[in-house]
From TrEMBL:
InterPro entries: ATP-NAD_kinase_N, Diacylglycerol_kinase_cat_dom, Lipid_Phosphate_FormReg, NAD/diacylglycerol_kinase_sf, YegS/DAGK_C. Keywords: ATP-binding, Kinase, Lipid biosynthesis, Lipid metabolism, Nucleotide-binding, Phospholipid biosynthesis, Phospholipid metabolism, Transferase. GO terms for biological process: phospholipid biosynthetic process. Belongs to the diacylglycerol/lipid kinase family. GO terms for molecular function: ATP binding; kinase activity. It comes from Aedoeadaptatus nemausensis. The keyword Ribosomal protein does not apply. This is Diacylglycerol kinase catalytic domain protein. Its cofactor is Mg(2+). Residues 1-122 form the DAGKc domain. SUPFAM superfamilies: NAD kinase/diacylglycerol kinase-like.
Amino acid sequence: MAILFIVNPKLKTGRKEKLRKAIDEIFPEEDYSFFDDYVRNFPIKELEKYHHFVAVGGDGTVYRTVNLMMKTKARRFSLIPAGSGNDFARTLGLKGEPVEILKAVKAAAPRAMDLGRWNDRYFLNIASVGLDADVNALNTSANKEIGSISYSLKLFDAVKNYRFRKIHLEGYREEEWTLFTFGNGGYYGGGFPIFKKADPFSGNLLFLGAGRSRLSYVIPFLICLFIGRDHLFQKDMVRKTISSMEFELLEEANINLDGENFYERGPVRVEILPGEIQYIGPLTDKRA
């Protein structure tokens, strides 16, 4: 069996070469593949020979790696943060040079970690439909080169052109939503702490829904979210800890899963799969 390193194809050549050299030194006895092309080009028939998948990049690379891995029986997953946002890496407390994190991966024992599912797609960090998904869609790779400030700049464009997402959630009169967001991880948008209490080892998902009136106060609302004072905006806002949720997108909507966007309408089931994957890598003292 072998390790498959899925590397962000936009990673600079010098960083790729340094990483490949480090892999040779740290995993001298391991059979591995270093794939730095787009995941859609990976030969599916070769997947079964890999028992351990390693994402080298940001949240988009995490999404593509996990969804590729879930086509197999393998469940061992590691993350080497090397992207523009690295939001799921923040939740895990991953810091430092990729070479040092590789060494920690080599020494670590597997630990069961939760995985989110949106219908037939998987996510490790955040799933959302609404204003935040639109901001992510507007924030192209070129914009992300300037760092997390690019998300803030695109927020104003998204607010200016926003159409409320029409979503039917059983038991709620509200059908027009500004935010409709699920978290297995705690951050998105290059470090915005949408779910400060998120724990991908807890067996639960966190949910935040904000109705129509939140758009009128979106900037102060987001500031209060950032500083943990969102209780000041209780009207048409929902926070819940869930294991699953079913709802219906009443019209086609832009969806964001770990920084990747697609469009969907109709019935949706979002759920947490407790302990579905085996995380191999360092954790902060708080999570170890």
